[in-house]
Amino acid sequence: xxxxxxxxxxxxxxxxxxxxxxxxxxxxxxxxxxxxxxxxxxxxxxxxxxxxxxxxxxxxxxxxxxxxxxxxxxxxxxxxxxxxxxxxxxxxxxxxxxxxxxxxxxxxxxxxxxxxxxxxxxxxxxxxxxxxxxxxxxxxxxxxxxxxxxxxxxxxxxxxxxxxxxxxxxxxxxxxxxxxxxxxxxxxxx
Length: 190
Prior knowledge:
Oligomer: single chain
Shape: globular
Order of helices and strands: HHHHHHH
């Protein structure tokens, strides 16, 4: 029964997978066109995010203290965010190296969960292989990043760009497959 509800949710929201796929393809193309700018932009955006997140965590701590609630976890979170932003802006290479390994771990773990979801989806949608291929591509990407940690920044960006394009195309294909699966569901409920 769980697989049926999962496929209905995915089928109803096929357009979200389509947008996700298009965004990944666009990101991949832009990364191929501007690899140097891409890596610096990724680092700067992360630093800005960490700073803003840290400041808002401090604000949350103040608000929690005003209402006599637990505030110290927010302070610690805020300080960590601000320190990470400071490290990023001091020497972006440190953050980019950490981000490199984070992306590798993210791709590997995402791939595992995509395979788990694909097994559930296959119980309802016959011959569904797109999510399995996406999961395997994610796992392979993560392994390759760990296996070759000294690869040049250009190679890393090209791997990320290629992965984004391949993953985007796979998500677009999955969304179109789910879109055709969504129509009978809508007809039976009306």
